[in-house]
Design a protein that fits this description.
36% strand; 81 residues; DUF2442 domain-containing protein; globular; 7 strands; four-stranded antiparallel beta sheet; three-stranded antiparallel beta sheet; NE0471-like_N; single chain; NE0471 N-terminal domain-like
């Protein structure tokens, strides 16, 4: 089971996530922001309120995305340098 241990907001739709195995992946939330309760996260100020709790990414308003979903939809991060 994947667990999110750290996040960095990269821009208005992308997060750099660190998982419990130390792996970093970039999650693009764009497709999720078109659906139901997640539409409010299209507001950049709200999206940037992301935080880690309960081993996953959460936002105010009791929004979260399951860690396995985040991992599955994220791309491996390749640092420069």
């Amino acid at each position: 089971m994947h667990k999110v241990t750290q996040l960095t907001v990269l821009d208005n739709t992308r997060l750099l996530l660190t998982f419990n195995a130390g792996e970093q992946r970039i999650f693009d939330a764009s497709p999720f922001l078109e659906r139901g309760v997640f539409k409010i996260l299209k507001d950049p100020a709200r999206f940037r309120q992301a935080y880690v709790a309960f081993d996953t990414v959460c936002w105010p308003e009791d929004l979260d995305i399951a860690p396995d979903t985040l991992y599955q939809h994220a791309q491996p991060y390749r640092s420069v340098g």
